[in-house]
Amino acid sequence: MENLNTNTQPETTIPRIKTLPRMLPLKKVVHHTGLSSTTIYDMLDKRSKRYDPTFPTQVKLSKGRVAWVESEIAEWLESKIAARVH
Predict the structure, then answer these.
(1) pTM of the entire structure?
(2) Most CB within 10 Å of its CB: which of 14, 21, 61, 69?
(3) Count of alpha carbons within 13 Å of 19, Cβ hemisphere only?
């Protein structure tokens, strides 16, 4: 039986371009969440009454510089919206 595929070019795969995560500095996290920087750091402190283990932890980018992954902040906010009582 004859091969009906007339395409003689070899199959090529297109390499996927990895999307870089978007990082948010504290100022942007404050803006998006409506929380103060003090509250955010309290939510990360296990010794604090405000400690929230669900709040995303920051990523240390360099000495003295941290940021949060934007998608993690968005997911945290979405979970808060979904958990609200109507």
Answers:
(1) 0.77
(2) 69
(3) 6
Query: How many Å apart are CA 28 and CA 39, to the nearest integer?
Result: 14
Q: Check if the beta carbon of residue 60 is closer than 8 Å to that of residue 66.
A: yes
CA distance 71 to 31: 15
Please report, as a single letter, which amino acid is at residue 53. Answer: P
Gap between the Cα atoms of 78 and 72, Å rounded: 10
Dump pLDDT digits (tens) for 20-78: 999 999 999 999 999 999 999 999 999 999 999 999 999 999 999 999 999 999 999 99
Cβ–Cβ < 8 Å for 14, 25 = no
